[in-house]
Amino acid sequence: MGFFYDLSVASKLNQLACSQRLKRIFMSYPMLESARKNFILAALPLIQYARISEHLKSVDLLTGQVIYEPGESLDFVYFPTTCTTSLVLQTQDGETSELAMTGRDGLVGIPLVLGGASMNHRVMVQRAGRAFRMSADVFEAELLHSKALQQLALSYVQAMITQMSQSILCIGHHAVSERLCYWLLFNGDALPEEPIKITHEMIAHMLGVRRESVTQALGKLQTAGLVSSGRGKIAILDREGLTQQVCECFSLVTAEKQRLYERAMRMISAESET
């Protein structure tokens, strides 16, 4: 889904780049390639992506960093490329539980897609990495201007609804070890070649369980040769093995995301042919 620099793409862009503005964007290819690691940005028709890329700013996010608190105005929308974020619920007593996760498959700021202006949950960075952000005003204007962006964003909202619904079932009916495998698979896929830098305490915070439960579950996975854990890092050694230990929620959510993404791409393709 990434952006590949070859003569055919260059030729198409040159044909479309009738203005000096688009020609300048073409020369900034390294930034375009990096941002298009995000699936939504990568799926946009090139001419539409070239237009909005001028409004994207690269930001590095840290594990545990809070992007939004409940009720906070949405000034920006974020498109993760190598980081992952979490929608977190919190009780009045301070107990927490993760409701949904976002990585390079989506965006942070879905209330904007539905006409909202504020966040209704805490959004926290799970895995440190990079995202590209855009001002809320520009994003809302682009939603009206770009049917492709609108379709992709709405499809992701639907995918998030599926993930949140499945999360409710998962929290109540699946073991900590199964939920941990889900968490590891999602975050591991964001940057497969590097270990996940996170503490047991942070994972426990996300899963809404005791730290000891996370440590025990990780110990069993390590004994089975599926992961390596130590010094605030977790490396996935056997992804296939983890998929055999995870609850069915992972495959259900993943399949639904893929179905919605493919549907959006078909609609974008049909629109471009009319």
TrEMBL record:
It comes from the Bacteria. The keyword Coiled coil does not apply. SUPFAM superfamilies: cAMP-binding domain-like (SSF51206), Winged helix' DNA-binding domain (SSF46785). GO terms for molecular function: DNA binding; DNA-binding transcription factor activity. Signal peptide: none annotated. One of its GO terms (cellular component) is cytosol. CDD domains: CAP_ED. The keyword Transcription regulation applies. This is HTH crp-type domain-containing protein. It comes from Limnohabitans planktonicus II-D5.
